Q: What sequence folds into this?
């Protein structure tokens, strides 16, 4: 008999079906037991009345992997209005011991460190796994939006010889006896590939040896990167980003999640008009600006050059400011981007002549590059904003930080 | 005026358009100059007759970034049957010097090391960039096929504490003063995630410190990984792989590439019937088997356990063989896969009790895992087979090997 998923039971009322999944929970009453079976689609309630089967089931630990053949029946009390009767069970695999996490609760009660230490089990919780289904939908929407706009997906190397941001948070790799680094971003390569495909994106891991243990930084995260050639300035880049974010929200909604409608034109404010007397915004500034504008999405443009990386394009006429932007979403920065320098001599000047470590990168500019710009969006932060998670570790499958390298 | 791509000229005959791109080549005749402009869509021929403009253009180096307004006209000799007349050019960016690669040739004449040393320019060659457009189409097809089958995309950490294959080719990372490794594969995490989503895939970088300088190994490559729960044995995994590969070929054809039709049932042969008196196939064996069968695609199943990793499921009744497979494509192994162990006690036995380094991984099995299996396909090797490239470095944007760490 073909396997049926729990999500497909409603159209099989009265039929005999075969389900497979995990023993999520069992509730024993005086004369019967309710077995909750969990599969990738959701939960199904199995009613066990035969005393021999009640006894068989009573011996099982949570997370026992089971198959069950049973008859689908309507039931007002059960999940999705159906339950399974007259079950015949087969055990596919037995847990070695009682799981360390109580998956049966609607919300996990364990502390975050316990949840992360036991991620292989904790991620099975329906609420926890939903965050990663949302991540998958978001990435799908990102790609679809950019594919429609003529972008080409690339994969760039993660073992590199130079820092793209500051040299302070680089991880060192022993590369056949030589020192190398883990890429902090695909920045140099996505710019280089503008010379090839004009419009490129990459979804991949980036690495930051963050020495601070905060709720919004990780040593490894997933970056959604894009870079676009033949732009006039950063506003062209912001228009593409708007399409990407709208695509992500649309895919999320299609997958059954709440996600905002992205305005056709996301409002923006220049850094000089934020009232901030510094070279960067604090988290409190970001929250305040979103509140003041009553905007879920808000661009801040023109960040001072002092706080942006060397490849940033200055603002024509006001060179202390830059053609850069951040996108704030619900009070937090989730995207950084901007127009880049594109002339070789501007790079040589920006690097103060220290070009040796950037030789490969600078080749792209030496041999003709159009005006271009791009952006990077942190996937885990995006999902945290959408789900309301307070800590980015809740939206990372297996987080890596100062103290955590396993599981 | 909106920009027009070179691929869209045929529907604009008689119109004035604006193009942007790179000066691919110019051919000077006695009374006129042909300028070949390259953009992401292809090439367009611009006819320059005005002596002042001929002189302007003559001064430009190849790869000068230009815009041109001109009139589209039919022309039998020109690419795609159209050319541009009465051009007015604007220079967007000038190269600093003559490019080290002659991009104007139909095939690059430079040696592979020269091409790789100058990848930022060499990748702009129309033939070279096609390989990476094919890679992007293949990945798109892979994801689409698995999305249709109910898979969820995941992103697993690349900084890890243990080897998934042999410990011999691990790269070491300095992780905040502690030693860690770069993941040789997402194997442990994709298996773990079968406990969460049943069916998962990942497209991402993997790292192998290969001490051999061969035409088919790299220190970093892109792995297309999938893992599937609730299988009977490795034949269920092979059926999913067939769908994935068919999806990749279909997407490649849709993008304009030659790609084979994948048979509904890919033929297979058990290792015991290959006539090979060893525990693995040599490259010569792989070529011979494909030739003997007259098969573009051929599964070899049942590889001896001696050559497969510790998580491999043995063949029931013949424990010296395994429920594993390789997929050969045009005489070369491009996919490795199989059924995995799923019982905790089997892992403890397979690891000879040395479970300390695998604690996080083993949690998945300790708390109930269904029979499962999966596969991994190397993207660069796949594209090399499709394009006929002899060296995998030709289908890798920025290869990493024993001797190469830049660009």
A:
């Amino acid at each position: 008999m073909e396997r049926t998923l729990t999500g497909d039971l409603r159209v099989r009322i009265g039929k005999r079906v075969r389900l497979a999944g995990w023993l999520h929970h069992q509730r024993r009453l005086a004369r019967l037991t309710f077995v909750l079976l969990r599969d990738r689609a959701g939960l199904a309630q199995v009613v066990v009345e035969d005393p021999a089967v009640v006894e068989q089931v009573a011996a099982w630990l949570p997370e026992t992997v089971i198959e069950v053949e049973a008859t689908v029946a309507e039931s007002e009390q059960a999940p999705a209005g159906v339950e399974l009767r007259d079950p015949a069970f087969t055990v596919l695999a037995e847990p070695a011991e009682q799981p360390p996490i109580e998956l049966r609760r609607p919300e996990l009660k364990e502390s975050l460190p316990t949840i992360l230490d036991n991620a292989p089990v904790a991620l099975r919780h329906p609420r926890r796994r939903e965050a990663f289904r949302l991540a998958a939908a978001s990435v799908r929407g990102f790609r679809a939006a950019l594919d429609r706009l003529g972008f080409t997906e690339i994969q760039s190397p993660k073992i590199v010889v130079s820092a793209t941001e500051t040299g302070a948070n680089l991880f060192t790799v022993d590369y056949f006896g030589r020192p190398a680094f883990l890429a902090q971003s695909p920045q140099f390569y996505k710019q280089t590939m503008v010379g090839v495909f004009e419009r490129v994106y990459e979804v991949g891991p980036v690495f930051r040896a963050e020495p601070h243990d905060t709720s919004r930084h990780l040593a490894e995260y997933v970056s959604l990167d894009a870079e676009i050639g033949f732009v006039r300035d950063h506003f062209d880049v912001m228009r593409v980003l708007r399409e990407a974010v709208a695509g992500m929200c649309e895919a999320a909604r299609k997958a059954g999640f709440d996600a905002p409608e992205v305005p056709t034109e996301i409002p923006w404010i220049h850094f000089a008009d934020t009232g901030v007397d510094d070279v960067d915004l604090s988290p409190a500034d970001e929250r305040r600006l979103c509140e003041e504008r009553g905007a879920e999405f808000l661009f801040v443009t023109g960040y001072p050059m002092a706080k942006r990386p060397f490849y940033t394009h200055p603002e024509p006429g006001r060179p202390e400011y830059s053609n850069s932007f951040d996108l704030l979403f619900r009070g937090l920065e989730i995207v950084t981007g901007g127009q880049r320098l594109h002339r070789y001599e501007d790079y040589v000047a920006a690097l103060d002549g220290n070009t040796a470590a950037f030789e490969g990168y600078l080749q792209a500019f030496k041999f003709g590059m159009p005006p271009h710009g791009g952006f990077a969006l942190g996937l885990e932060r995006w999902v945290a904003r959408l789900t309301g998670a307070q800590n980015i570790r809740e939206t990372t499958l297996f987080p890596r930080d100062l103290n955590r390298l396993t599981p």
Observations:
- Chain A touches chain B through 94 residues (CB under 8 Å).
- Chain A has a mean pLDDT of 96.
- Chain A is about 25% helix and 30% strand.
- The first strand of chain A starts at residue 16 and ends at 28.
